[in-house]
Each structure stands twice: as structure tokens, then as C-alpha cells.
Amino acid sequence: MIYSGKAVSAQLLDDGIAELKFDLQGESVNKFNRETIEDLGKAVEALKADGSVKGVIVTSGKGVFIVGADITEFTEMFKLPEDEIAGWCLSANQVFTAFEDLPFPSVCAINGIALGGGLEMALSCDFRIAASSAQVGLPEVKLGLFPGFGGTVRLPRVIGVDNAVEWIAAGGQHKTDKALKDGVLDAVVEADKLKDAAIALVKECLAGKIDYQAKRAEKLQPLTLPPLENMMAFQTSGAFVAQQAGKNYPAPVAAVNVMQQHGGMTRDKALEVEAKGFAKVAKTPQATALVGLFLADQAVKKANGAHIKKGAAEINLAAVLGAGIMGGGIAFQSALKGTPIIMKDIADKALDLGMNEASKLLAKRVERKKMDPATMGKTLSKIRPTLNYGDFGSVDVVVEAVVENEKIKQSVLAEVEGHLKDGAVLASNTSTISITRLATALKKPENFAGMHFFNPVSMMPLVEIIRGEKTSDATVATLVSYAQKMGKNPIVVNDCPGFLVNRVLFPYFGGFGLLMRDGADFQAVDKVMEKFGWPMGPAYLMDVVGIDTGVHAAAVMAEGFPDRMQYDFKDVSTVMFENKRYGQKNGVGFYKYEEDKKGKPKKVVDDETYALIKPHVAERQEFEADEIIARMMIPLCTETVRCLEDNIVGSAAEADMAMIYGIGFPPFRGGPLRYIDSIGTKEFVALCDKYAHLGGIYEAPQLLKDMAAKGQSFFG
Asked: CA 20 to 30 Å from 516, out of 82, 346, 505, 681?
């Protein structure tokens, strides 16, 4: 053994070839934390000092190669000044460059996922061979960052400017065929031949058949393009990246700028430029939010894992009651991910609608070449339409998705319960009705919970699992497991009007209604909130959700929280509803909808909207963007805090991720609670006080006041 550490080891194989192996003890995957980098440095020194080593292969003792840097270490490190972050990058890079400069050939054997620092380690080798099942990429821009272990330096020198810009600025995770075509990989082999292939390549280098030193020299020198071509390549790609990324995501553009700055430099000088650029983006609020988002996502997965351990049953057959657009969407998603599903309704016409919805969604996948026709046929065959309960005795989980009416739902749920086997789980897809109240119609309320999908089911990642007063842990566990099996991100919440997402969303709509009452222009509000980062402004969002649906849900919220969600004026959405302007579903709401060239609804301004709302609002006036943002965001954020305070949601991470997954909260702002943190709890309470005269939705919750008084934040 040449070197043995807790994360990295090096041993001599035959013919003077050493194996440098990553195998981080106590972890299921390899990642670059401080310990791994320190270990790698020591291993490199030992390899250099051992005169018997003639070449080295780099391998992994895990099922993956290296998943990247340990992001849990970032949050503290990014609080340091820029120069200290840059210093950290450079010290880590000294280890990678020391490996790259070893006086013998190196070949990386990538057995699985190699992302971020994992691919940067591979780029430090002279050659890269991957198993056919491997995937590689530099996804740092998705965390508001760019590669900091030499990725922006080595990749353009290995694969050229255009390809490197695509790989780094888009942050994709690529299969081996693309990686081989673009030149990131030198060869692809079957997994069982990977190590032998790497050794064979080292031997070819030692035999003089391959000039590894010439290959290495390309990474040490400036880019080979002439200066003018170099400038044109970066300016063209930089403009495209800026257009694609938008102003709210600075990391991709910063990465391109850094690559351009160091393109004419040797490796070591270029690494200094990369380190300074990395430190700069690490200090942006977007990086703070997006790194936080990643950690919150991990926290949600951990929480769901804890739920599943409480008795999740195996799901071999599911059923959905109600074959409308929602029922068809649920059936499609279940079948797509491999769980056969029965779709029951009381009319053939409804079943046809549900099957057509599933067929349409599958046909789109075939059209986009994400599925072949044969697979589409197999998937569709996993959905069995029926008018009776004949096979319900074999079903493991049933999702009720009938009309949003409490009495009808209770009747349907009580009826189906009698056809289910012992231990089968029953769920309602209600978006507003109390799970505890629905459960009163059941003989086994412990086997019942809410399973709230968001529309369209195929697109929206969130599923709320709602625990009623009598819901058992095993029922929650089974539904969390089923949601994950369907490819969704479940978040467990407790029962209350609107549950979590709608309870938080409707104060946001309430803020919009108050702005309109006071004379704001709905188009101006939409534009400000879209610029803030929302995929669509509140008026447009209401049209997409369905104004009839919104008015119904608003009534539920007003009944549940009359102190702050019952208003003493006629809301403009009610005006739209009374005039049968329901939004996209019937072609007119706040906006009119026309089909574009692709057959999708396109919004256009409708002057009649202004005429209809005029009797119910103040004279039109302009509001500053900051005031619009404050009046829209305070109600949403304070209600999120109340949900945490009332134990509707288990953690700040779950609350934030629900808003990201469920209503498109701007990811680069990290979620409502992280947004409060970015302003400061004390400052946010002051903002609440400034607008408290507008009503209860603007009042700071006691939890927030207490945190402000103690100088606390939601994410430390």
C-alpha cells in the first residue's frame, strides 16, 4: 500500500501501475469535502515519492465515481470574505494540479456519476474512460456558482470554447454518448471491462504508442484559438448565455466571462482568475438561495425517508376514482412510472375523457422522442378503465379525484371503502376540503389521508400528503412512498383550510385584490411580479388556475381564517367570476386567450376587463415597484410563517420547497422563509408594521416577532 486514508488510498498493481481509489468511509457516495481533498494531497505526495510507480489509474470504491463537492460545507465557507474563498479554491487546486503534474501517465476510470468536482478530478487526468452507464457533468450553475476546481480552465482546453460554454453554462448531466462525441471522454466500455481498459491505456502510454505528454500540454497552455477568433467565440456564446439565463441567474454569464478572461493564460494563472471569479459568485444572493434550496431539497428527502420507515406498504396496484383531466393525469403518471392503475367512473364518456388525457400526454412523449410507440402502448395498457368495483379487492391504494363537493366526496369514499381489502389506503385529491371532516364518513379513518396533486399532474412536481386527525403513520408512509414512486416530491402537512400551499397562496391573491381596490393596474402588477421572478403575475396566474376555482377556494379560506382572509370589499376576481370570465378554461378572464401557432393559449389585453372592474376600484394610479412587491410578498411570507407556527408543516425547509414545487416561487430567492432571511427578520417585521393598516394578512406573526427580537433567522 502506497497510501491509505479515510477517503483516498493508493496501491501498486502489476507492471508499476498504481491505483488511486476514492472510497469515503462512512458515506454511501464519494464527495469532495475537506477530508477528501486533504487525503488526495497526501496520496499524490506518496505517489510522487514512490520511484516504482510508472503510471496511475483513478477509480472509485463506490457505485458512483464522485458526486461533487460537499455542499454542506459551503454555507459556512461562503460567509467568509471573497479573498478567503478564493484562497480556499486555490489551495484545493494545488492538489489537483499536483496530481496533474505527476511524472507519469494518468487515466481516470469513471464507473458511475461524476459531477462537479468529480468531473474536474477526471479532467486533471490525461485520459478519461467511462462505463457505458456513467453520467458526467458540471452542474454548479444550478447552485448559482460555476466550477471552482479547475473546470473552467481545463474543459475549454480539452473540448473547445463552444462545447465548454454549453457544458458549464447549461449545467447539464450528460450520458456517455454525448460526452464521447464532445471529447470529454476518450473511450466508453462496459462496466466489467473498465478497470482493465484503463490499465491497458496506461500501458499504451508507457510503450510510447500514445503521447500523453502532448495531451497534457494542451491543458497547461493558453487556448489555441487566435485572439480575434477567441474574442468572437466568447462574445457570441456569452450573448446567447445571457439571453437564456436572464438577469436573475448571474452565474452562467460570470462563467463565460471568466473563461474569456483566462483564455490567453497558462493553467496556473488561469486558475487564479477562476478562483477570484468563483469567490465573487459565491457571495451573490442567488448562490446563497440556490445552495440553500439544494440543502432544503435534501432535508425534504430525509424527512420523507423518515416517514417511509414508519410502515409504508408495497404498492403493486393503484386505483383512481374520477376520470376527468385530473384523474386521467394521475392515471398517466402512475402508469408512466410503472404502477398499474384502475380508473373508475360512472360514465363511459368520462372514462373516454380520462383515457384521452393519458393518451395525449403519452403521445407528446413519443413526439418529443422521450418514448417509442411500443413503450407508449405498454404504458397505456397499465391503465384499466372500468365502471364497477370488480377488481378493487386487489388494490393497494385508491386516490379519489371526483368533483370538489364535500357530500359527494364523502359518499364516494364511503362506497369504495367497502370494496377494499384490509390495510388498503384511501386518499382524497381534494384541494380545499378538510381531511378530518371527510374521514367522518369512513369506518377506518386511520387508513385515510389527503393526496393533493397539482394541475397539470404531469408537470407539477409537488404532492401534498395531508394527515387528518385520525390518519395513521403507516398510511402517511404508504402515500409518501407512492408519490415518490410516481416521480413526485411529496411533502407531509397537517390538516387545515387550504392545507399548506393554498393557505399560503390565497393571502398573496388577497394582496393583489387590495392593490386593485386601491387603484393599481393588474397588468402593471403582473409585470412587476414577473420581473421579481414569478413565472406569471397574479392576474395571469388566476386565469391559469381558473377564476371559478379560485373564488371557491377563497370562500373556504375566508371561512377558515375570517380574521384575515375575509375582506370588506368586492374583490376583482369575484367581478370576473360573476361575469363568467373563468380564465383560460373558457377563453377570457383578466385577459383574453387566443391560440398561438402551436395551438397554445396566448394572453392578450382585453379593455372590457377595465370597464367591468371600474365601479369596484379606486381611480387608477401608479405604484412603485417596491411597494407592489411588498404588498404582494408580505401576505404570502407571513402566512408561511403561520403555517410553521401552527405546525401545519414540519420545517422551514419543507415549507420553502412546497412553494418552489407547488406555485413556482422564484428559485433564485430560495422560498418565502429564506426570502425573509435575505431581508432580515427584524427588517421584515418593520415592513409588516408599515403595511399593517391594510389588514390582518400584513400583520407579523408572533413567531416572527420573537425571532426578530432574538436576532434569529429561519436558516441560521
From this structure: 681
- CATH number, domain with residue 411: 3.40.50.720
CATH number, residue 65: 3.90.226.10
284 to 278, 341, 523, 669: CA distances (angstroms): 10, 46, 30, 11
Catalytic residue from among 174, 262, 307, 452: 452
Look up residue 18 and give its amino acid: A
d(CA 240, CA 253): 9
Retrieve residue 535's grid coordinates.
413565472
Spatial contact of 673 and 707, defined as CB atoms under 8 Å apart: no
What residues contact residue 369 under an 8 Å CB cut-off, 6+ apart?
none
Asked if residue 596 is part of any domain, the answer here is no
Residue 365 buriedness (CB in 10 A; 0-12 / 13-18 / 19+): middle
Predicted structure pTM score: 0.91
334 and 236 assigned to the same domain = no
Angle at 650 between CA 27 and CA 713, to 5 degrees: 85
Domain extent at residue 703: 502-542+551-581+616-710
Residue 294 lies in a domain: no
- Bond into 456 cis (ω within 30): yes
pLDDT digits (tens, 9 = 90+) for 632-691: 999 999 999 999 999 999 999 999 999 999 999 999 999 999 999 999 999 999 999 999
Torsions phi, psi for 663 (to 5 deg): -130, 10
- Scanning the structure block, which residue is given the C-alpha cell 466571462? 257
Q: Is 691 within the bounds of a domain?
A: yes
